Amino acid sequence: MFYSKKLNRFKEIKHCFFSKKNGYSTGIYKSLNCGHGSKDNKKNIQKNLKLVAKKMCVKPKNLVLMHQTHSNNVIEIKRMNYKKKIYADAMITKMRGISLGVLTADCVPVILYDSRNKIIGCIHAGWQGAFKKIVKKTIKKIKKISSNSKIYASVGPCIGLKSYEVDIKFYNKFVSKSPKNKLYFLNKSKSKKLFNLRRYVTDKLKQCKVEVDQVSHDTFAEKNKFFSYRRSCKLKQKDYGRCISTIGMLNSFEKIYK
């Protein structure tokens, strides 16, 4: 379990970047696999999510997750939709008593808090979502609720620069959009580059005047702590687990989980 130093200052919220440890799943999903989209035993996934909900002091039905599709779709969670299936890669809410969750296995989990307006949010920022401006759209949606905002963000565990090898086609896609994007790449060979996804997402947040801190862990390199899609591919595994990152505002500071 990992925490943002900035967000820890706010007693009205709870947050956590969970590792893959201390859950119920076995095999390649060992042990805190929270991904409904995986081929893991569904009962184990439910037990893992129930454990996460307990840690976040919410009822399991109030742990709100997304059906993530690497899009730039941002949804505001309200009483009328929080129990429905959410097709999005970012969520924001003013609701108390729920916790928003984002699932990752190399992509960037971002959790957000607007301290002036009491709005929380989370973003699933893979390279596709980040490229499609998921960060900017999410911040814009928060500011649409109130322009007088003070937004803090924490960028969680994700694949690191030294682990993220990409080809020239990938590199050209970013550079053709903006020559300034060259600064997010390092040369590895004539045909391969290394991509700094964490820095790319962080800079998008900073461009939106968001105050950012880092929970700097490499999901690919730290195999005992995190699930990794890329590592599972390299090992030729048939599937992979997903880690969860969460943020919530409670109705009170007392434990309400039963």
Strand content: 25-35%
Helix content: 10-25%
Low-confidence stretches: 253-258
* Count of strand segments: 15
Distance between the termini: 22 Å
Radius of gyration: 18 Å
- Main beta sheet strand tally, sense and closure: 6 strands, mixed
Give a concise summary.
This protein has 258 residues and is of the alpha/beta class. 22% of the residues lie in helices and 26% in strands. The chain contains six helices and 15 strands.
Architecture overview:
The protein has 258 residues and is of the alpha/beta class. Helices cover 22% and strands 26% of the residues. The protein has six helices and 15 strands. It has helices spanning 42-55, 127-131, 134-145, 168-177, 197-207, 229-234, and strands spanning 13-17, 63-64, 66-67, 74-77, 86-87, 90-93, 98-104, 108-114, 119-125, 151-155, 165-167, 185-187, 192-195, 211-214, 243-249. It has a six-stranded mixed sheet with strand order 4-6-9-8-10-14. Strands 1-15-7-2 form a four-stranded mixed sheet. The chain is globular and about 55 Å long. It starts with 12 loop residues before the first strand and ends in a 9-residue tail after the last strand.
Secondary structure layout plus pairing:
Elements: E1 13-17, H1 42-55, E2 63-64, E3 66-67, E4 74-77, E5 86-87, E6 90-93, E7 98-104, E8 108-114, E9 119-125, H2 127-131, H3 134-145, E10 151-155, E11 165-167, H4 168-177, E12 185-187, E13 192-195, H5 197-207, E14 211-214, H6 229-234, E15 243-249
Parallel strand pairs: 2-7, 3-5, 4-6, 10-14
Antiparallel strand pairs: 1-15, 6-9, 7-15, 8-9, 8-10, 11-13, 12-13
